[in-house]
Write a structure and sequence with these properties.
By secondary structure, the protein is mainly α. The protein is built from 5 helices and no strands. The protein starts with a helix and ends with a helix. The relative contact order is 0.14.
Length: 87
């Protein structure tokens, strides 16, 4: 997956997710309220889902062969469905 190695935005996303997970760990260690922990968990889940979508879209665009721009545009609704599913 060479397109992943070249995408510096993905690494930045992973680092942000790491920071969110560390914050979640601190909240659990410090005995934070359930609501706050659930909110942080939801934020982590959303960030991971966003990362999955970014990698998946890059993979589809990079590895599927398109004969013309019109065919490539057919990917737009597929990505929209994936985006709504992963939210």
């Amino acid at each position: 997956m060479s397109h992943v190695k070249q995408d510096k935005k993905l690494l930045a996303r992973v680092r942000r997710i790491g920071g969110q997970v560390q914050s979640l760990e601190r909240a659990l260690t410090d005995g934070a309220e359930c609501g706050a922990v659930l909110q942080q968990l939801a934020a982590v889940r959303g960030a991971v889902n966003g990362l999955i979508l970014e990698v998946l879209e890059g993979h589809l665009r990079s590895h599927l062969q398109w004969d013309n721009a019109e065919q490539a545009e057919e990917l737009v609704p597929v990505v929209a469905v994936l985006r709504s599913y992963l939210k």
